[in-house]
């Protein structure tokens, strides 16, 4: 069908009192800032040990900047340009200026009136500004404690998942294509449900994986609103499989990561399954270049997690970790953190704002986008009708066949059956923000949707 011609709906914002965006800006974001300030307070001695009184002074200044930021947010002061002169500051400030123009009545960009997507991303960039303006604690990850704790509390789930992967690996030569698909389907679901473990939605409260991720799949199945697993599988296994697998048949998967700890493990397990069964030959992982949305993966988290699994004294976890480290060493796996992922842009702006990244993704056979924030950026975080197609909401973004794996934590959801969204709203008003529902949603720019 040709792309439905439609108006681009307005962006979600905290303007709508009582909306999830409003409650996020009014309650959750200040809470996250308060927790960051507390974390800095609690680590005062560490800063002193490490840096002497310079460290104490830096900690004090950082707290002052974050308290000022919290006050600006809670009293809806104008959003102000960044002053840390970092490479992306200019892009951020140009984007801010653009918003000031497009807000029409020249009202300054404000926390409660401007697009939620922008102000929430902006808050995390301002947290970094506070750190970067205060060496020697500039590279301190204020979210590290939460991510580490969440990982350590998920160890039982990590154990069962790595054991499950080992079982598959042992019998992979005997598996039929159909059996392979069944395992793929399961690990795709484990990866999407791993997205529940996110510290931003819980405003930092423990949100680690307590249950066995594989056993709970059947009970969670009904809550997957869109499941494109089959078409994803055929996109991965069709076409190039004819004839001897020469390197032109080499298939590349890109995973745009979301949260660290258990969710990252589910992504590494999925990637390892696809590589060890010969379906995929190269995996590129995309993380964040600085701490983001509380639990998102940074380079430090990525490499720490692999080292941690190698060192775990559980035979299958450590075996997985050793394998993953060897994939990295061999270049079969690689980690990337382009600055674009920590800018406020909707993904339909990527080709213009980050042409190098867009071109890199065009070389992929499948790009998996994990989590809710990525889904909000894919669809522009707008009040779309739930029944418009995913392709329409992407508004031209399509470097390669892509799939969104997200649990719903924000009021944007497209690609549902007519009436389905309204039915859910009448039964469960918070269906889009409870992270109880999920989608495995595919789009292929090369084929008519
Ligand atoms: O880690 P995820 O799945 O991107 O979730 C982050 C989500 O949590 C929230 O911060 C909840 O407010 C959303 O704004 C955001 O989309
Ligand atoms: Mn996240």
UniProtKB/TrEMBL annotation:
Organism: Tetraodon nigroviridis
Signal peptide start-end: none
Protein family membership: Belongs to the damage-control phosphatase family. Sugar phosphate phosphatase III subfamily.
Gene Ontology BP term (one): DNA damage response
Enzyme Commission number(s) of this protein: 2.1.1.-, 3.1.3.-
Protein's name according to its UniProt entry: Sugar phosphate phosphatase
Lineage: Eukaryota, Metazoa, Chordata, Craniata, Vertebrata
GO cellular component, one term: nucleus
Catalytic function, reaction form: beta-D-fructose 1-phosphate + H2O = D-fructose + phosphate; L-glutamyl-[protein] + S-adenosyl-L-methionine = [protein]-L-glutamate 5-O-methyl ester + S-adenosyl-L-homocysteine; beta-D-fructose 6-phosphate = dihydroxyacetone + D-glyceraldehyde 3-phosphate
InterPro entries: ARMT-1-like_metal-bd_sf, ARMT1, ARMT1-like_metal-bd
Pfam families for this protein: ARMT1-like_dom
Gene3D superfamilies referenced in this protein's UniProt entry, alphabetically: 1.20.930.60, Uncharacterised protein PF01937, DUF89, domain 3
Free-text note regarding domains: Subfamily III proteins have a conserved RTxK motif about 40-50 residues from the C-terminus; the threonine may be replaced by serine or cysteine.
Summary of the function given for this chain in its UniProt record: Metal-dependent phosphatase that shows phosphatase activity against several substrates, including fructose-1-phosphate and fructose-6-phosphate. Its preference for fructose-1-phosphate, a strong glycating agent that causes DNA damage rather than a canonical yeast metabolite, suggests a damage-control function in hexose phosphate metabolism. Has also been shown to have O-methyltransferase activity that methylates glutamate residues of target proteins to form gamma-glutamyl methyl ester residues. Possibly methylates PCNA, suggesting it is involved in the DNA damage response.
Damage-control phosphatase ARMT1-like metal-binding domain residues: 24-424
Cofactor or coenzyme needed: Mn(2+); Ni(2+)
């Amino acid at each position: 069908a040709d792309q439905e011609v439609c108006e681009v709906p307005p962006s979600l914002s905290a303007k709508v009192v009582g909306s999830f965006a409003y409650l996020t800006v009014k309650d959750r974001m200040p809470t996250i800032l308060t927790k960051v300030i507390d974390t800095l307070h609690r680590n005062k001695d560490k800063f002193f040990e490490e840096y002497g009184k310079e460290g104490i002074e830096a900690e004090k200044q950082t707290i002052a900047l974050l308290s000022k930021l919290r006050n600006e947010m809670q009293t809806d002061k104008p959003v102000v340009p960044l002053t840390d002169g970092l490479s992306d500051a200019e892009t951020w400030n140009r984007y801010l200026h653009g918003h000031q123009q497009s807000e029409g009545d020249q009202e300054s960009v404000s926390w409660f009136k401007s697009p939620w997507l922008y102000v929430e991303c902006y808050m995390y960039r301002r947290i970094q500004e506070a750190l970067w303006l205060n060496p020697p604690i500039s590279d301190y990850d204020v979210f590290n404690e939460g991510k580490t704790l969440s990982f350590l509390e998920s160890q039982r789930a990590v154990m069962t998942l790595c054991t499950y992967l080992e079982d598959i690996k042992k019998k992979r030569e005997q598996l039929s294509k159909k059996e392979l698909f069944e395992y793929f389907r399961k690990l795709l679901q484990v990866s999407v449900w791993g997205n529940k473990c996110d510290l931003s939605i819980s405003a930092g409260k423990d949100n680690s994986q307590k249950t066995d991720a594989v056993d709970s799949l059947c009970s969670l199945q009904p809550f997957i609103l869109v499941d494109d697993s089959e078409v994803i599988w055929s996109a991965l296994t069709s076409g190039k499989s004819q004839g001897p697998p020469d390197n032109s048949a080499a298939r590349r998967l890109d995973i745009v990561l979301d949260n660290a700890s258990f969710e990252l493990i589910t992504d590494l397990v999925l990637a390892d399954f696809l590589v060890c069964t010969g379906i995929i030959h190269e995996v590129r992982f995309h993380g964040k270049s600085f701490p983001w949305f509380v639990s998102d993966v940074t380079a430090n988290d990525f490499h720490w997690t692999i080292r941690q699994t190698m060192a775990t004294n559980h035979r299958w976890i450590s075996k997985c970790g050793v394998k993953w480290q060897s994939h990295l060493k061999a270049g079969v796996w690689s980690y990337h953190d382009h600055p674009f992922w920590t800018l406020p842009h909707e993904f339909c702006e990527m080709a213009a704002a980050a042409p190098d990244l867009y071109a890199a993704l065009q070389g992929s056979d499948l790009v998996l986008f994990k989590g809710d924030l990525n889904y909000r950026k894919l669809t522009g975080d707008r009040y779309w009708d739930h029944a418009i197609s995913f392709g329409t909401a992407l508004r031209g973004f399509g470097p390669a066949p892509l799939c969104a794996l997200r649990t719903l934590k924000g009021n944007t959801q497209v690609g549902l059956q007519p009436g389905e969204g309204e039915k859910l709203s009448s039964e469960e008003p918070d269906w889009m923000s409870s992270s109880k529902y999920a989608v495995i949603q595919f789009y292929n720019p090369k084929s008519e949707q």
